[in-house]
Amino acid sequence: MRYTGREGSGRRASADTLVCWRCLIEIPRHLFTHLLIGHYKTLSEIEDKNAQDETADSDQVADSDAVVDSTEESGESNDELAEALREKDQFKRLAQRAQADLVNYRRRIEGEQESSRLRNQQRIVLKFADVIDQLDVALNSDGVDSADSGWLEGITAIQKNFVSALTSEGFERFECVGEQFDPRKHEALLSSPTAEHEPNTVITELRPGYMRNDEVVRPAQVQIAVEPPETD
User: Which domain of life is it from (predicted)?
Assistant: First the structure.
């Protein structure tokens, strides 16, 4: 059976029409797919952007926390530094006080040692002074004029040597006859009523006294004058 050209034309028209309908059908499908892919792509970009923003926010929060922690640590460090400085000042004051106490203790010990040395020296000197006193008594006795001249010269030389030895150590006799009685320098053993001297005047030296550096190491034993009693 042969078809006419009209029929061929009709078939081609139908085919073309089918193609067109397919195009119409395919276009929305492609468009929908494109839009859908674009939507998901856009959604993915949004999610990535949100994730980046969240990461940035987290980093910012972490940085803020780090700043806060650093500030707190700095504050704690300042407090610890202030406490350390206070303790340093306390220890410094304690060390200065201990050093001052040590210096005072050393001075006190040195002073006590010097005082002890002087007391021992004075005790020895006073023993020699007692020997000198005995020699003085011998030289001033009544029978000295009839004594052997050699013996007298020897005793006199010994007495002078003892006096010189004491003088070289700073111990010297002091004069007291004619002075007013001073209890710091004189020890009154006798008193004699007399109108020839003022009351409390030293009229006789019974035993000489010694001084060292203006300090009395042994008072002189003396006799003083007192006012005579009134007579009717």
Answer: Bacteria
